Structure prediction request, 154 residues.
Amino acid sequence: MAKKCDNKSVGMLFWKNDELLLIERKRFPFGFAPPAGHVDDDVSFEDAAIRELKEETGLEAEDIKLIIEGRKDNPCRRGGQWHYWKIYEVKVKGELKLNKDETKQIAFVPKNILSELAQKTELYNKGKISENDWEKTPGIERVWLDWFKELKII
Prediction:
């Protein structure tokens, strides 16, 4: 049985040499995004962040620092239409490992490529990219476009 949306999400920003770790989601919501996920039954947002980072990348959080939080409208495959987010900057240990169930690819992305992916999302938001084309070659996941702008990453 699929879990119901708990309207609570976490995201982790991991920078390496001015490049941000992003995954390309295999399932809705399609797009490139930092490791992220629902809080679910975890005791805290921080516990959920540590769990999601490990599940999606194989990396273990050594240090985790809250940098922003708030509510964002964003559709969820579990049925929700919004989430209360806590976004963390993390320092990690371990080796990157692709989660083949959830992720098409994983990479460190420089800011110029983040900007290109953001421009693609803007075109998608304006209806200039079809759903089919978006699923095949997406830009930044919509909710993350909002966070990246708010955080002045792009």
About this structure: The chain is about 30% helix and 35% strand. Helices lie at 45-57, 111-125, 131-136, 142-150.
